[in-house]
Amino acid sequence: MVKVRAGVLLVLAACFAFQQLSASDDTVFYDSFDNPFEGRWVVSSKEEYQGVWSHSKSEGHDDYGLLVSEKAKKYAIVKELEKPESLNDGTIVLQFETRLQNGLECGGAYLKYLRPQEAGWEPKIFDNESPYSIMFGPDKCGLTNKVHFIFKHKNPKSGEYVEHHLTTPPSVPSDKLTHVYTAILKPNNELVILVDGEEKKKANFLSADDFMPPLLPTKTIPDPEDKKPEDWDERAKIPDPNAVKPEDWDEDAPMEIVDEEAEKPEGWLDDEPEEIDDPDATKPEDWDDEEDGEWEAPRIDNPKCVTAPGCGEWKKPMKRNPAYKGKWHAPLIDNPSYKGIWKPQEIPNPSYFEADKPNFEPIAAVGIEIWTMQDGILFDNILIAKDEKVAQAYRETTWKPKFEVEKEKAKEEEDVQGAEGFLVTLQKKIFDLLYTVADLPFLNSHKSKIIDLIEKAEQQPNLTVGILVAIVVIIITIFVKLLFGGKKPARVEKKTTGATAASSSSSAAAKEDEKEKENEGTSSESEKEGAAAPRRRTTTRREN
C-alpha cells in the first residue's frame, strides 16, 4: 500500500513539474500533440501537397504525435506563434523529436522556422517558397545523410538574403527509434547541435570554416567585367619550332618483333596437348545419356607438361623492337610569351560588411514542408525555449522514457534474430552433412529415398526433426544389416513318415512350380513397365 502511494506521488510530482515547464517564461512555444492538431496547425491548401497528416500514437506507446501517413507525397503544415520571437536577444533553443518508424531511404524530417511573411500571406498558402530564418533537422536521400542546419541572413549592404549551410553536419541515426534533435544558438555566436542530448557539432556563426558560404563576405571579389586579353598566353612550355625529326626516325616500326634467334627448348613435347581427360574420372551411375547428354570426362593439366619445358606447337617468342621509337614529337622548350594563368583583377566587394554577430530574422511560425518516399515519420514535442535547462528537462521527461523502452525492445528483437540466424546456419550445416552421408557407397540402394527426405526437410523446416530421425533410422538399419547379415535362421523340419514326406514333397514341388510361374509373369510385366517408363533419376542436391 505504501509503495502504491509512493508511486502515485511520483506520478503527480512529474505531472506538476511538466506543467511548470510548460508554463515557464523560458518556454516560447511547445506542442506535445497530446490533442488533435486540427484548429492549431494549418495544412497547406496548395495543390502539390497531397500528403495526409494524421494525429497518431507512436508505435508501442500511448504518446501521440504528428504523423506522415502516406508514401511518396509532399507535405506542408504550419503553426503561427502568438508573436514573433527574436533570435538576437540571448540563448535560443530549438528542439523536436522525430521517429522514422519505417526508416528513411529518401526524404526529409526537418522543421522550418519561418520569419515574418509579407502582407497578405496566410498559413494555408504555406509552401517551399515561404521564407524562413532557420531550417533544422534530418535529411536523407542517396549520398545525402545529414542533420541540416541552414540559416538565411540578410546582407545589410545588398539587401539580399543569403542561405548559409553548416559544413560537416552530423549524420542521421539509421534506426527506427525516437530521436530528439536540439540546436542551441548562444549569444557568443556559438551554435551547438545535440542528437539525443549528446553534442555532435559545435560551430561559430562568424567562422568561414563552419558555414558555406561564410556569413561575412570577402573584402574583395574578382572583377566580373574584367576579361582575359586575346594575346594572353598561359602555356608555360611549347614545342620547339626549330626542331626537326631525324632522318632515321621510323614512326611505322612495330613495338615488338619475332625473336629470330630463339630456339626451341630441348625436351619440348610437340605432340602432347596441354590438357587431357582425367583418367581417374568415371561416368556417374545415375548418368542418363538421353536426359543428360553424352558424358565427357573433366579436363586436367597434362602431367607430362609439368616436367617438360612445354607442350604443343612451339612458336618463336616476341621481343622488343630495338628500332621502335614511336611517333616523333618536337621537344618542349620554355615559352618566351608565357604570362602565367590569367585571373581577373580584384575589386572592392560592394556587398562586404563587418559584424560582431549575425542579425537573425525573428521566428514567426513553425512549419514542416517536406517531400518523402517513406510514411511513418512521426513528429512530436516541438519546443522553442530561451534556456538550455528547459530543453534538457523536456528531454528527460518526454523523450528519454520512450527511447529507453524502444531501445530495450530493439535489443530483444536483435537477440531473437541472432538466435534464428544461428539456427538457420546450424540447420544448413546439418543438411550439408546429410548430403555427404547420402553419397556413401553402402547407402547407394537407399540414396534416392534419403535425398527425398532431406529435400522435404529443407522445404518444410517444421518437419526437420522428424525427418532427421527417419534418416538416422534408415542409416542405422542398413548399418546393422551390414554388421550382422540379412539371412534368416535355418528352419528345423519335423520328422515325417515316408508317405507323408513324399506327399508333402510332391505338394511343395507343385506349389514351387506355381510360384515360379507367377514370378515369371510378374517379371515379364515389370520388364514391360520398365520399358515404358524410364528409371527415376536420383535427385541432385539444390544449393541454398
Automatic annotation (TrEMBL):
Membrane-topology annotation of the record: Single-pass type I membrane protein
Transmembrane segments: 463-484
Alphabetical list of InterPro entries matching this protein: Calret/calnex, Calret/calnex_CS, Calreticulin/calnexin_P_dom_sf, ConA-like_dom_sf
Task of the protein: Calcium-binding protein that interacts with newly synthesized monoglucosylated glycoproteins in the endoplasmic reticulum. It may act in assisting protein assembly and/or in the retention within the ER of unassembled protein subunits. It seems to play a major role in the quality control apparatus of the ER by the retention of incorrectly folded proteins.
Family that this chain belongs to: Belongs to the calreticulin family.
Key words, A-Z: Calcium, Chaperone, Disulfide bond, Endoplasmic reticulum, Glycoprotein, Lectin, Membrane, Metal-binding, Repeat, Signal, Transmembrane, Transmembrane helix
UniProt-listed Gene3D superfamilies: 2.60.120.200, Calreticulin/calnexin, P domain (2.10.250.10)
Composition bias type Acidic residues, residue spans: 248-279, 286-295
Protein name per its UniProtKB record: Calnexin homolog
Signal peptide: 1-23
